[in-house]
Amino acid sequence: MDPVAAKFIAAGIACLGMGLAAIAVGTIFGNFLSGALRNPSAADGQFPRAFIGAALAEGLGIFSFVVALILLFVV
């Protein structure tokens, strides 16, 4: 296999983490909204935890993007 083609394939596989992070953020806020509609009095206590979870998921997405850029332009 051509090394350039392998580099593009590896970067594409690394980019899967960005899509999975987007799915994770949607799941986090969807579950938060479902729980907030069931128990509105507990929603205020869970809101910061939802943001922390979303920030961690987005951080992993950004990390996978950085890995893809490193694979494309450095390796």
List keywords for this structure.
mainly alpha, 0% strand, elongated
What does this structure look like?
Helix content is 88%, strand content 0%. By secondary structure, it is an all-alpha fold. The chain is elongated and about 60 Å long.
Quick take:
The chain is mainly α. Helices cover 88% and strands 0% of the residues. The longest helix is centred in the C-terminal third of the chain and has 31 residues, at 43-73.
List the helices and strands and how they pair.
Blueprint: H1 3-14, H2 16-38, H3 43-73
Q: Let me know the number of strands.
A: 0
What is the average of the pLDDT values? 92
Poorly predicted runs:
none
The whole-angstrom Rg is: 17 Å
